Structure formats: structure tokens, C-alpha cells
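call fold(seq) -> C-alpha cells
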Amino acid sequence: MYAALWCGSASRGEANEYSDLDIHVLVTGNERWRSHFTVQVNGQAVPVEVFHNPAGQIMALLAQEDGATTAMYAHGRAVLPHPDLNKLILEARARYASGRTPVLLPASSALP
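ret:
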């Protein structure tokens, strides 16, 4: 892991009691995966979902106009900055600002 983006409702200040913490991390290599765990915050268990992806995979999802990925990168906050992450954020923001409605990719492209 060499870069991290905090995204989702909590990063936007819109979390509720059902929200989790969403983190995208950039990894080297070609593998992509998700991890799930909980952390204690003020005595409450908070679920965390981490999306591990190579930068090239995220760029491909942005090029495919994947709605979830575009929104997460356009509105997320870099918590472990890196030039690759900055490039992805700028690309997502440009695509989001273009006014085109991102699409949801078919379930076959989703991670397990």
C-alpha cells in the first residue's frame, strides 16, 4: 500500500448510525481485493471496508465511467497522498464535473 483515500458518507460529513468507513488504497502489482474489519470509535464498533487496487485498475474503472468509483475518487480525501492518487482524484473530478452521469458496472465486474 502506498496511497490511501478516505471516501464515502463519513468523509463527506454525512454518516449515520449505519455508515461504514470506506478507504481506497493503491497497491503495487496487479491484484485487487477488499478487506473488512471493525474498529472501536467512542465505544462503538464501526465497520471498515478497504478496497485494494492498483492505480491502473482505478484508471480503467474511471474510463469505463463506473459511477461508484468516480464518485468516491471525486469526493474523497487523500489521507496518504501520492502523485498516482492525485492523478486519479483529478481525473475523477474532471469526469464528475463534465456532467455525464456515471454508470454502475455490471455485477460481474464487482469485487468478491
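The beta strands are 3-7, 21-26, 33-41, 44-53, 77-80.
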